[in-house]
Design goal:
By secondary structure, this protein is an alpha/beta fold. It has helices spanning 7-34, 50-64, 85-88, 150-160, 180-192, 199-202, 206-230, 271-296, 342-358, and strands at 77-83, 123-126, 162-169, 239-243, 299-302, 362-366, 375-378, 385-388, 394-397, 408-411, 421-424, 429-432, 438-442, 453-457, 466-469, 472-475, 478-485, 495-499, 508-511. Helix 8 links the parallel strand 4 (239-243) and strand 5. The protein starts with 6 loop residues before the first helix and ends in a 21-residue tail after the last strand.
């Protein structure tokens, strides 16, 4: 049939065209990764502004003896870290000369994580700078101190080397973001001068702040991709990874048997503020960064739980506490406080090494048994609730606490973090969502009927190992014993071991939680009853 197409025919053709475009978009990347791209397949290298080109040519000459831009497969390979103080090396010490002084407070450390990874590369660059905002990572954007903008530095190094990994940690600084520096300073000052906790000031506005961080980070990630395209790269030529921030503080510091003291250890935060940081502020910030990565197609590494058990003033800490540098009498004197230390950057290096090699789009890095080592797990952890068949209630950390020995009781299921657990099938441990360093633990190690099951430092011992058997949860060290709730006639039921039977008090559903807003995100019971 000839003549002018009908509306239905035009709609059909338009849909076919859309399908064709979508198919092309899906197939071409797969073809690109199936075999190395030829030079003609890559976008043309765009010229840099004259001032940047002068710097690029000088760097190329230092690398190769000549200023020209080489074909990508003839360049030295490189890894590069970008972002703010969380990844620059702030708090580590051993700073690169010129980056820890008036005029430049980037605080880049030679012991920073990118220099300690197990990823093979000829060159390793750390261009992160303390205080950086997401907009400092955008080519042509604002600069810091006496340096080039990080986006411009990336543009130069992308033309001189074959960049294999761009590792980004950013989003905590800048107008409209969470503004970690001012918030942390305010909280520390209030503790030092006994002015009362800071969390009431920030709790209700935190959702707005984290969403601002998300939007800003999306801008930065999008521009990094644009910078690499302008440097002649295909997306398949390199890996772009966004890593989340690790929680620096814990309300459980007094569990440390060698607690250094509030002042000598630099532990100067109210415990209620530490609970706010760990149980609400960091998790909400992590969710925002996770969304930014998903919205831009960026690989995402969740390290928010990595320092659980290693926070300020805990044993084997990976974070520097409140620290006043002598000889500096301005706002920079305390800038190194509450940042990852050398040990923390070593854990970052372990995580990124494993994640880079895994090829996973999303991964989570934690220390599962207080070993001081980061262990990668595929995907993002889902913490589930343990609902009892007899009572219809859930296992609940009493008082929203995670201190050693906290009672695990029967309570109505509400989706809070004190009712969330993650099961490690390899170690057979059940980790609390409040702290990955707290596991269900048979009290005193006594694998006998009637023994209470609380939470305690995760250590991988037999009394912290459990197996799922149908709708029962058995002690791995004695499979004749099952987790059960007390008889409710004895008072509020609590979690104990019992000889395995058909009792419904031993039957559990390890289930996903359905809630619009988790407890601890919109209420104040994230603090816990023992932190005031």
């Amino acid at each position: 049939m000839s003549g002018t197409p009908t509306r239905r025919e035009r709609t059909h053709r338009r849909r076919l065209a859309q399908v064709a475009v979508l198919a092309t978009a899906l197939v071409l990347p797969m073809l690109a990764t199936a075999s190395p791209a030829a030079a003609a397949d890559r976008p043309a290298v765009q010229p840099l502004p004259a001032n940047l080109e002068t710097i690029r040519a000088a760097e190329a000459t230092a690398l190769y003896g000549s200023p020209g831009i080489r074909p990508i497969d003839q360049r030295r390979t490189a890894l590069i870290s970008m972002g703010d103080s969380q990844i620059s090396g702030e708090g580590v010490g051993n700073y690169v000369p010129g980056t820890h002084q008036p005029g430049n407070w980037c605080d880049r450390s030679y012991d920073q994580a990118v220099f300690r990874t197990g990823i093979t590369a000829d060159e390793r660059y750390n261009i992160a700078c303390s205080g950086a905002t997401p907009w400092n990572l955008i080519a042509g954007g604002p600069t810091q101190h006496n340096e080039l903008n990080q986006g411009d530095q990336l543009a130069i190094k992308a033309r001189n080397t074959n960049i294999k990994l761009i590792w980004v940690v950013v989003g905590a600084n800048g107008d409209g973001t969470i503004q970690f520096g001012p918030v942390a300073t305010d909280c520390a000052v209030r503790r030092v001068f006994f002015q009362g906790p800071c969390w009431p000031t920030y709790t209700d506005q935190w959702a707005v702040r984290t969403d601002g961080s998300r939007r800003a980070v999306e801008e930065a990630l999008t521009d990094i991709r644009r910078t690499m395209t302008n440097a002649g790269y295909l997306a398949s030529d390199y890996e772009l990874v966004l890593m989340s921030y690790s929680s620096p503080a814990s309300p459980d510091v007094e569990d440390n048997p060698n607690f250094p003291g509030w002042y000598s250890g630099g532990c100067l935060l109210y415990l209620a503020d530490a609970a706010f940081a760990r149980n609400k502020a960091v998790p909400m910030f992590e969710s925002a960064l996770r969304a930014a990565a998903a919205n831009t197609g960026t690989r995402y590494l969740d390290a928010s739980r990595l320092f659980h058990g290693h926070e300020v003033c805990t044993d084997n800490t990976s974070v520097r506490g409140l620290y006043i540098e002598l000889g500096i009498w301005d706002e920079n004197a305390a800038r190194q406080s509450f940042h990852p230390n050398k040990r923390g950057h070593g854990m970052f290096a372990q995580c990124i090494t494993q994640f880079y090699a895994s090829g996973q789009q999303q991964g989570t890095c934690v220390d599962p048994a207080s070993t001081g080592n980061g262990q990668l797990y595929p995907g993002l952890m889902e913490f589930r609730q343990l609902r009892n068949a007899a009572t219809g209630t859930c296992v609940d950390g009493k008082g929203y606490d995670s201190r050693n020995g906290t009672v695990q009781q029967s309570y109505r299921c509400h989706g809070g973090r004190n009712q969330g657990f993650w099961y490690d099938p390899t170690r057979q441990s059940l980790h609390s969502e409040l702290s990955h360093d707290r596991c269900l633990d048979v009290s005193g190690g006594s694998l006998t009927s009637g023994t209470a099951v609380n939470i305690y430092d995760c250590h991988g011992g037999t009394n912290q190992k459990f197996t799922f058997s149908g709708n029962q949860i058995r002690a791995a060290g004695n499979t004749n014993l099952c987790l059960a709730f007390d008889n409710p006639l004895l008072g509020t039921p609590r979690l104990r071991l019992a000889t395995c039977s058909s009792s419904s008090r031993q039957q559990w559903s390890f289930e996903s939680r359905s809630f619009a807003q988790p407890v601890g995100y919109g209420r104040d019971d994230f603090i816990g009853s023992r932190v005031y």
